[in-house]
Design a protein that fits this description.
Blueprint (H helix, E strand, L loop, with lengths): L17 E2 L9 E8 L2 E8 L10 H13 L1
Parallel strand pairs: 1-3
Antiparallel strand pairs: 2-3
Amino acid sequence: MGLLDKFPTDLLNETDTVFGCPDCADQGGYYLELKLNTTHKFWIIDTSKGSVPEYLHEYMDELSGVIEEL
């Protein structure tokens, strides 16, 4: 399964596009962009799990793993 298959659909219902304070303390951040049919959204997510909703934690682990493999 790829990242798109594991995408947290709850994120589509969010009105915020920034979670936490990405890169405020040199910890970096994730930029996610989703384009499906007429849907086009983006989010910037802090890498510190304490700053983002819990439902994103597992997906953040997936992102981290894919980035490390690159």
